[in-house]
Amino acid sequence: MLITQMTEREVPAVARLEGQIFSAPWSEQGFSDTLAMENVLFLVAKDGEEVCGYCGVYLAADEGEITNVAVARPYRRRGIAERLVRALIEKTASYGIQNYILEVRISNDAAIKLYEKIGFKRCAVRRGFYEKPREDACVMHYHVDDTPVISTVRQD
Ligand SMILES: CC(C)(COP(=O)(O)OP(=O)(O)OC[C@H]1O[C@@H](n2cnc3c(N)ncnc32)[C@H](O)[C@@H]1OP(=O)(O)O)[C@@H](O)C(=O)NCCC(=O)NCCS
User: Which of 64, 125, 137, 151 could, after both became Cys, cross-link 57 (CB 3.0–4.6 A)?
Assistant: First the structure.
């Protein structure tokens, strides 16, 4: 399993996965437009040529907003999302990002447990944040401390 920076090459496979997993998925164009921005980092996990997971973050000042985190169903519970998010933090913390924030559906126990394992704390609830179905968001925050994270991302 290799974790690398997402490029245009992976966008069709990532958008396909996104469409299978989320009720309001980003489009292929949406991923392409986002990748073209300067203040983002998106990572993919690949098993050979197959994209099996991805995640991304928008960077502003010292804060990173984590957007999409997803792993293809057959690849779940193998530590891929944990490696992806830790790699995203490791890489962007080296750019000076100190704080990470994300929203997650309040009923999404798997994702909340994932983020808590990494060190995120629940900090707020956004009422009715999600559509399809309408649901509250749990806002979670992580502050970079001195704890070393395991290096998982290839330096390109
Ligand atoms: C949430 C998701 C990304 C987790 O991916 P994953 O690769 O299976 O997660 P990992 O194997 O890295 O799990 C890491 C930790 O997360 C937690 N976790 C992950 N899936 C879990 C589940 N189904 N139930 C309970 N805890 C879970 C556990 O603490 C796990 O650590 P452990 O294996 O030592 O117990 C995946 O289930 C997914 O793609 N879900 C649909 C998309 C989604 O909800 N994305 C998040 C949007 S905010």
Answer: 64
Percentage, residues of the chain above pLDDT 90: 90
For the record, the structure tokens of 27 come out as 């489009």
For the chain, the structural domain boundaries read: 2-143
Ligand 1 midpoint to CA 112 (Å): 8
Tell me the CATH number for domain 2-143. 3.40.630.30
Residue 52 near residue 75 (C-beta atoms within 8 A): yes
- Ligand 1 pocket mutation pick from 1, 77, 132, 141 by most atoms within 8 angstroms of CB: 77
Q: What is the pTM of this model?
A: 0.94
* Protein residue with its CA nearest to atom 33 in ligand 1: 77
User: Is the shortest distance between the CB of 114 and ligand 1 below 6 Å?
Assistant: yes
